[in-house]
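Intended use. Records like the one below are meant for learning the mapping from a protein sequence to its folded structure. Do not use them to infer anything beyond what is encoded.
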Amino acid sequence: MKNLIITVTTLLQWIHGSPIHEEFPLFVSTTPKRLISTAPGQQTWMTEEDIMGLYQTKTKFIDVTDGDFDKLQAYSAFKPKSTPNRFPTTVSHKDFASRFLSKVDLDRLETFLTKLSSFQTRYYKSKYGQQSAQWIYESLEKLASDYPRSNVHLIVTKFQHSWNQFSIICRFENVEKKFQPVVILSAHQDSVNQWNPWFGRSPGADDDGSGTATIFETLFVLWNNDFVPDRPLEFHFYSAEEGGLLGSQKVVADYMRRDVQVYGVFHNDMTGYQPDGLDPVIGISTDNVDPVLSKTLQIISESYAGVEWIDTKCGYGCSDHASWTQAGVPAVFTFEAAFKDQSPFIHSSDDTVKHVTFEHMQSFVNNCIGFAIEMSLYNGDLQ
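Structure written out for the chain above:
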C-alpha cells in the first residue's frame, strides 16, 4: 500500500474544495451506485465519484434510482392540457401590486443571502445542509410569528427525506378559499462543491441561494403588507436538486399521490449573476416548460420585471421545474441570463455574494410578486 503524505497546504485545499482530485482521491465511496439519466433514454449506474465527474464536466443529470421520475410521467396522462384561457392573458393587477413592489428591500435580500451562503456547504447529505435547511425553516416560522394575521394562514412544513436535508413547504392561504388549486413559487436550497461535495466550501450564493432569497423576499413582502390570495400560494424550498432533482421528485410524487390540485409552478434557479458588459435580462426557459403558462410569464415580465426578457434553453435535467413538467403540471422557469452567459463561479468555493448583483435580483423578485398576484387573483379559470 502506498503511503499518503498530505501537506498542510494540500489539506487546506481539500477542505476548501479546489481541484486537487487528480492527485488525492477525496474519498473511497461505500455508497451503492445510483441510476443516473443524462438524456432521455440514457441511463447508467454510477458511483458517487462518477457523479462528481458530472459536476466537473457541467453535465446535467436526473437521479432516477427510486423510480419517482418514471411514476411522474404516468401521472401526466391524467392531467388536462393547458388551454389559451386557462391562465391570465393580460396583466390585471399592476396598480394594486405597486404597493408591494415598492416594499422590496435590497438590504434585506443581501442580509438573507449572506447568512444563507455562510454555511460551509448546503450539500444535501451533509450536516451543514441540514443546518441551513433548519435556518430557512426557522426564518419562515419567524415571519409568521412576527406578523400574525387572522384572515390568512402561513403554514410551514418540513418534508423529510431519507438524506439529511429536508425540503420545506410554506403555504400562504386565505382561510375562506383554502381549497382552490395552488400556485407554487419554488427554488432549490442545496449547494454543491464539484471537487469535494461533502466538506468543500460551497457558499452557493447564486446557485441557488439567489433563487431561495428571491422567493423568500417575495413571501416576506406579500405577507407583511397584507396581501390576501384567492388561490393559495405555496413557496417550495427543495432539497437535493444538485443530487439529480431528488427533492422535487419526492415532493411532486407526493402531491400526485394525494391528488393535490396545482394551478401552476414558477421555479427560480440562479437569479443573481449579471454578466459584465451585457444588458440585464430575464431568461425564460423554452424547454421542459408549459408553453401556455410561459406566455403568461412573458406578459407578466413585460409589466413587472423592469428589464427585457429573452428566450433561452435550459437543457435536460436542468432544475426542479422538470419534475412538475414530467407529471403534467404546468411549470415555468426563469434564469439570470442566457444560459451561455451564466455565472462561471457555480459549484465552487467562489460562488459568493461578491458575484451577486442585488439590483438584478430585484427584477426577479418583482417578477415573482407579479406572478403570485396575477395568478392567485385571476378569476378567468377559477375552479
